[in-house]
Amino acid sequence: MHLKSSDEIEKIRASCRIAADAMARVADLVTPGVTTAHLDEVADEYIRQQGAVASALNYRGYPRSICASINEEVVHGIPGSRQLVEGDIISVDIAVKKDGYHGDMNVSFAVGEIDMETRRLLETTKQALEIGLAASEPGTRLGDVGHRIQTHVETAGFSVVRDYCGHGIGRNFHEEPQLLHFGTAGTGRRLQPGVVFTVEPMVNAGVADVRVLDDEWTAVTVDGALSAQFEHTVAVTDAGPDVLSRFADLPF
Ligand code: MF3
Ligand code: CO
Question: Which of 54, 69, 146, 232 is least buried, going by the fewest C-beta atoms within 10 A?
Fold first, then answer.
């Protein structure tokens, strides 16, 4: 597990800044009638203007620059001609590489008005992310981070997706360590200063199981129930968790 220097952490933060600014542009466009292809184009153009590239583009053959996962789509939805509809939820994943370092984040949005139970799903997922981030300090075991996330989600009556995890990030989009968003307290490696990774719980309103569509990317819930996700990139430091993709001027 590569421990990052403060110079490297600042490079990751700079990439996260671009991802967050692209997310802010996408957030302004999330309204009924917009296509996910348009969201992708706007994000991609902004990222290129910053002299950066979208980490997802061409990653293992992924064809677009962002992921846009609507309703029962859990993760890795490919932007296209589908239009958002009032009452939808959409999870937008934006990762950026600049100056050799990646930064990664994901936000779920409501399209117009959503019902109360859907709002509770979004809120619970965001809380699960915040619990994971708060736990990301020196000495915490990875299993404890996962356990706290899982407990919060299941207490709310929802389920944690098992098939995708958080990941170390730096020169590589995905590197050590893996963070499972479920687990057993008191197990796993202990975090130490210089570890940089993502916390990105995917939470389903129904069962945890997912399947991948014929496009070989889009994961959906097997029962068709809604799914939400939030993600930040965090550095473990002596002063506690440093959320590299959070900025005081942005709401994410
Ligand atoms: N944040 C997601 C992840 O870390 C984004 C994946 S991009 C894709 O897995 F190219 F793999 F789709
Ligand atoms: Co990620």
Answer: 54
